[in-house]
Amino acid sequence: MIAFLIRRIGQAIIVVVGVSLIVFLITHMLPGSPARAILGIQATPQAVRKFNAANGYDKPVFVQFFVYWKHLLEGNFGFSYKEDLPVRTLIANRAPKTLLLVGLGFFFAFLVGIPIGLWQAVHRNRFDDHLLTSLSFVGYSMPVFWIGMLLIWLLAVANHVFPAGSPSAASATVGQVLQHPLGLVLPVATLTFVEAPGVVRFMRSAAIENLSEDYVRTATAKGAPRPRIVLVHVLRNSLLPVITLIGLTLPLVLSGSIVVEKVFNYPGMGLLMWTAAQTRDYPTLLGGAVVIGVATVVGSLLADVLYAIVDPRVRFSR
Description:
mainly alpha, two-stranded antiparallel ribbon, 13 helices
């Protein structure tokens, strides 16, 4: 197990460095420059050259990348020219709010998806199974922004049930966000709609496979009640592939949270990165990419560890 963790942590470091390199190169290939974005289009060539020299943008791209990672290892994420704050401060303020949003989305997706998938497996090939399968495919096919806009129109515009956007300011803490729980309903519901269909399909497939196993037939022959067989034995064994779904879908949920935060003006990491991309705020964009990359590989590693905990038969060897 220790060897497995060491190997995965090494792979995670390579992935994070690779992701940050790709984002670094893409940002430098975009039209425009940080100097023009900060100083304005009327800035003189002398002012642009002075700005680039002061911030290291006059050096080769790979030299800039190595300097960036040197600062990163020192805990320095750079300085946001647009926000006039260190990027580390911005991330420390925004990341917990995105973690709250994504965590609630995951929680409700699993809370809804696991029982629905189990129900479909027990009632497979019936009308309700086909109906829920069709609804799952509808959820798969709908873009994140469209689900968010549909919920806004339905529950905020046509029927004034929930606010259309987050009432919290960008500098608000998690506690201040939780003081307005109604503002979280639509963003969390959007992420739940995005994630729940995958949970349902994985749970249904795993439960159908387990219902045909010998232990289910043996328990039935011994007279064990059907609900006990399904809820105690089948449910536990069917959760294994669903746990792996956490690591597989975390990148999709994090990317979806960027769109969700923009649609609902939610003051998290997603909205921060969206704004940074629009304003050529390279340090903030790179810092956000590194944080999301780390969160993704940690989620994947956590899924593997949970898999081993839930199934004692799993052993990781060298």
